[in-house]
Amino acid sequence: MPDNQEPILVRDGPSAYRPPCFKLKHWQWWLLVSLNIFFLLAGQAAAVLLGRFYYDQGGNSTWMATLVQTIAFPIILIPYFFLRSSNGPSTSTSPSFATVSALYFILGVVIAGDNMLYSIGLLYLSASTYSLICATQLAFNAVFSFFINSQKFTALILNSVVVLSLSASLLAVNDDSDAPTGVSKGHYAIGFVTTLGASALYSLLLSVMQLSFQKVLKKETFSVVLEMQFFTSLVATCVSTIGLFASGDWKTLEGEMDGFGTGRVAYVMTLVGTAVAWQVCSVGVVGLIFVVSSLFSNVISTFSLALTPIAAVVVFHDKMNGVKIIALLLALWGFATYIYQNYLDDVKAKKTRNEVNEASNDSNC
Predict the structure, then answer these.
(1) Is 19 part of any domain?
(2) Is 72 helix (H, G, I), strand (E, B) or coil?
(3) Interior angle at CA 205, CA 220 and CA 203, nearest 5
(4) Is 3 domain-assigned?
(5) Percent helix, strand, coil in the chain (nearest 5)?
């Protein structure tokens, strides 16, 4: 493609609409895609590692760990105001304010619960084991997309689901686990179940959100995606804050800060860094949804989870025994087959579009 030609933006919204700010040259488009991929990969890896660091250094409030996952949501306003467009496609039957509010509230509450499950999982698991289990969200996503979003279930997708399930199963029966110091086998099992449940719930949320765009909001522009993320994060933050005070965890925060292994300043910086990292990741997620597609964004997110164990080995010296190495390879295999299936779908879709365009040109002649 020549540098002065605009790339085709494959998005989930109306294909005829493209915001003026995204009429970019080929290299500019790829630069934007690469930047968003970096935000997603770096943000997610940093957030997981900092979350594990918080627990390792003496932090033990799962409500605080849950709160920091969404509390920096105002960062989302940066891309919202810079990249939003005012001339997007509109629908004649927009949902009522009450409907949208109820949707965002329910999703926000569920997100808060999902974040709590993730926090409990990371409390009892090493960063590498946690990330490998989280990678199963791609398998759950395929299953929920089949039932909720009518997405086809091919042999390659089935292979991906089976392989990722085997990867998680290996970690479940791994006797030589590298659970954090002081974590019993019972707590390890709790961590495994909650992380697996959180991954399933997250995948269900993605499918429900996609259905919401189609059936309730009836559009999926960049602004609408960001608005949903902003308001659901606001609700999730409120729920987490209520939980923090209702549980009494807030009373222990000062003592937790004083007893933090690397000091009070490091305690604050860890929480701030975790919060910012999650939102940097979120910006990358919504950026890829807008510039490429929601499917591509989810796949890159899952790929990050498969790479995080390597970072955990470097940062925390997590033990990578034979079982975990096999689980990692299986996760990468499942990821690769999922990617390949979507590559085939993309090639088929492009071929169909070309045939339609050629038929249209012939009829005009």
Answers:
(1) no
(2) coil
(3) 110
(4) no
(5) 75, 0, 25
Task: State yes or no: pLDDT of 204 exceeds 80.
Answer: yes
Read off the tokens for 337.
């087959």
List, for residues 122-160, the tens digit of each pLDDT value: 999 988 888 888 888 878 888 888 888 777 778 888 888
CB 198 within 8 A of CB 38: no
pLDDT tens digits, residue range 78-99? 877 776 655 455 555 778 899 9
- Could you tell me the two tokens for 341? 């299936």
Minimal CA–CA distance to 111: which of 220, 233, 261, 271? 233
Q: Which domain holds residue 40?
A: 24-83+96-359
Domain count, the chain: 1
Which residue is listed with tokens 């701030």? 272
- Nearest residue to 294 (alpha-carbon basis) of 203, 160, 168, 197: 203
The number of beta carbons lying within 10 Å of the beta carbon of residue 227 is 17
Q: Assign 119 a pLDDT band (cuts: 50, 70, 90).
A: very high
Distance CA(250)–CA(245), nearest Å, equals 6
Tokens 């087959």 belong to 337
Q: What pTM, to 2 d.p., does this model score?
A: 0.81
